[in-house]
Specification:
Elements: H1 3-17, H2 22-34, H3 36-41, H4 44-47, H5 50-54, E1 59-68, E2 74-85, E3 91-97, H6 103-119, E4 125-131, H7 140-154, E5 163-167, H8 173-187, H9 210-225, E6 234-237, H10 242-253, E7 257-258, E8 260-262, E9 266-270, H11 276-285, H12 291-296, E10 300-304, E11 322-324, H13 334-342, E12 347-349, H14 358-366, E13 370-372, H15 374-377, H16 380-394, H17 400-424, H18 431-450
Parallel strand pairs: 3-4, 3-5, 6-7, 6-11, 11-12, 12-13
Antiparallel strand pairs: 1-2, 2-4, 8-9, 9-10
Helix pairs in contact: 1-2, 2-6, 6-18, 7-8, 9-10, 9-16, 9-17, 13-14, 16-17, 17-18
């Protein structure tokens, strides 16, 4: 059969076997369709059944997490860990705590992680996990008890040469600390089994900043290739978590003007530029709504979510040169892409995982908007997680400058790999295709070398 027939057959099987997992199907469709030129050139991937194998996780765990709230009542949540592919190294990928988490979300994140991790050039496989637990509105003690209950099941599936989780949405330094403490208590072992650890107990400098900083570094590579400079450019950033905050911080450091941020309740437009100190005080320290930011800056405009159409994001109606979707999946749709194009946006650089719909990506690519896909643009976080693993293994501590320099090089290498692959297959500048083929080829070749397992 032809390459496209092979792809469609595998996608049909995925859809039949994964009903209701729309995000996973979307991720698989984007990757597999972009592989058609490679499959036409290299029949060995079909001959070895690589697509059929790579879309199925090596192992999937679903477990019950029961914990006691402050009122003494037992609460129960779902827990997940998907160990998707270990062809090039131990499973590596974050844990997400959010009410939207389900099996399809975790599978899409784990599938994307395979190719993202491959692109870093580091020896790490793909995995993901999490729970539908919502840390918002919970006391520190409730979060601690949940994390301890979650790790009481998870610990048996992870290890420093087997599976090394990290943080994601809803899992920050606080949660990683509670998870690590429980792992250490259960196993009696002090090992680098989680990344994003505190600096006093095995963490790495620059890890907190890595995804946001790396996203900006990747954008700079795209702009440079197209004869543009980020300095002075107005940037619309969505989100106000770790990725968005440090994207905003790095944008200001390189002379750009980040003018927006957002959360689940609304968005801030600050024409003269988002104040990072205030943003951190409101979100990282106070864990408050962004409405509190507007109360501290009279010239900042707050737009609540309920005042905007349900299928739109107010962030993307702000005129900008660069858009950094850095909140969550599918937050930028076709209408948002049209609004960005109307206002002259030059580049959309994805900081979150799969934040743009397939229709939005197609529109942007067809209308001359430069595009940095998530699996390349937001790989800085997992790259520095692996650098944390390296420091743990060697019992060393690298300086902030050393890690940041390595991050710079990794993001440049990721861009070069994606761009050069796009040239190789006759689609110069199509970084979606370039990143997918470059990431896939390394993993697929390793799977062939290791046999039918």
């Amino acid at each position: 059969m032809s390459a496209i027939e092979y792809v469609e057959k595998v996608l049909a099987d995925v859809k039949a076997c994964s009903p209701g997992q729309d995000e996973f199907y979307q991720a698989a469709e984007e990757v597999l369709h972009s592989l058609v030129p490679l499959l036409e050139k290299e029949p060995k991937y079909e001959e070895n059944g690589i697509l059929e194998r790579i879309v199925i996780p090596e192992r999937s765990m679903i477990f019950r997490v029961s914990w006691v709230d402050d009122a003494g009542k037992v609460q129960t949540n779902f827990g997940y860990r998907i160990q998707f592919n270990s062809a090039i190294g131990p499973y590596k990928g974050g844990l997400r705590y959010h009410p939207s988490v389900n099996l399809g979300i975790i599978k899409f994140l784990g599938f994307e992680q395979i190719f993202k991790n491959s692109l870093t050039g580091l020896q790490i496989g793909g995995g993901k996990g999490g729970s539908n637990f919502d840390p918002k509105g919970k006391s520190n003690n409730e979060v601690m008890r949940f994390c301890q209950a979650f790790m009481t099941e998870l610990y048996r599936h992870i290890g420093e040469t087997k599976d090394i989780p990290a943080g994601d949405i809803g899992v920050g330094a606080r949660e990683i600390g509670y998870l690590y403490g429980q792992f250490k208590k259960i196993t009696g072992s002090f090992e680098g089994v989680l990344t994003g650890k505190g600096l006093n107990w095995g963490g790495s400098l620059t890890r907190t900043e890595a995804t946001g900083y790396g996203s900006v570094y990747f954008a700079q590579n795209i702009l440079k290739k197209n004869g543009l400079d980020i300095k002075g450019m107005r940037c619309a950033v969505s989100g106000s978590g770790n990725v968005a905050t440090y994207t905003i911080q790095k944008l200001k450091e390189v002379g750009a003007i980040p003018v927006t941020c957002s959360d689940s309740r609304g968005m801030i437009y600050h024409e003269k530029g988002i104040d990072v100190t205030t943003l951190k005080a409101v979100k990282e320290v106070g864990r408050q709504s962004l409405e509190a930011y507007a109360e501290l800056h009279e010239d900042a405009v707050y737009t609540p979510v309920h005042s905007y159409p349900e299928d739109r994001n107010a962030v993307w109606d702000v005129p900008c040169d660069i858009a950094f979707p850095s909140a969550t999946q599918n937050e930028l749709n076709l209408e948002d892409a049209k609004a960005l194009h109307k206002h002259g946006c030059k580049l959309v650089n994805e900081g979150a995982n799969m934040p743009s719909t397939l229709e939005a990506v197609e529109y942007m690519q067809s209308n001359g908007i430069l595009f940095g896909p998530a699996k390349a643009a937001n790989a800085g976080g997992v790259a520095v997680s692996q650098l944390e693993m390296s420091q743990n293994a060697s019992m060393e501590r690298w300086s902030f400058e050393e890690v940041d320099e390595k991050l710079h090089k990794i993001m440049k290498n990721i861009f070069d790999a994606a761009y050069n692959t796009s040239v190789e297959f006759g689609k110069e500048g199509n970084l979606v295709m370039g990143a997918n083929i470059a990431g896939f080829r390394k993993v697929a070749d390793s799977m062939i070398d290791e046999g039918a397992i």
